[in-house]
Specification:
Number of strands: 7
Order of helices and strands: EEEEHEEEHH
Mean pLDDT: 91
Largest sheet: 7 strands, mixed
Distance between the termini: 53 Å
Helix content: 10-25%
Strand content: 35-45%
Oligomer: single chain
CATH superfamily: Nucleoside Triphosphate Pyrophosphohydrolase
Number of helices: 3
CATH class: Alpha Beta
CATH topology: Nucleoside Triphosphate Pyrophosphohydrolase
Structural class: alpha+beta
Number of domains: 1
């Protein structure tokens, strides 16, 4: 096997850089209904598709994981929640818009959590422009799997519905 000089580009350094981020998704159920949110037409990855509220951890601002999921749900749908236990872990990759010329990607590792709503009147007024949401709906559990979900959420939804 040929040696590689220290500091010289080798096979691993030739790969596109990957940043790691952590996300949480809230599966909020009230009265036999699950809260889903719809991505707006402006969403760069999944326009018009459905998912559950949640997002990526802000390392310097979120105090802990419960604080993180509460903040995400409040920003996206204006609900107060009581975070419950995680029930599923998964990952996905997405382009890193901070370094598109280099082909950089972000690996997002996510936890799905069952959450109890403290309030139930969902509104989209608090969302950040990067959320790209244009709708939300309380969906009967038996219909939640039939919605056009973002692809990475489909196995998570199956796991959730199988245990609900």
């Amino acid at each position: 096997m040929p040696s590689v000089e220290a500091g010289a580009p080798g096979p691993l350094t030739a790969m596109s850089p990957i940043r790691l981020q952590f996300a949480q998704k809230a599966f909020i159920v009230a009265g036999g209904r699950l809260l889903l949110v719809r991505k707006a037409a402006s969403d760069p990855f999944h326009p018009g598709r459905w998912e559950v509220p949640g997002g990526r951890l802000e390392v310097e601002d979120d105090l802990d994981l419960d604080d993180h999921i509460r903040r995400e749900v409040w920003e996206e749908v204006g609900l107060k929640i009581e975070p419950g236990p995680p029930f599923h872990l998964w990952q996905w990759f997405m382009p890193d818009r901070a370094a598109p010329a280099r082909g950089a990607r972000i690996r997002v590792v996510a936890a799905a959590r069952r959450c109890r709503p403290v309030t139930v009147d969902a509104v989209l007024e608090n969302q950040d422009s990067g959320d790209h949401l244009d709708g939300c709906a309380w969906v009967p559990l038996e219909r939640a799997g039939s919605y056009d979900l973002i692809p990475s959420l489909r196995p998570v939804m199956r796991a959730f519905l199988a245990s609900a």
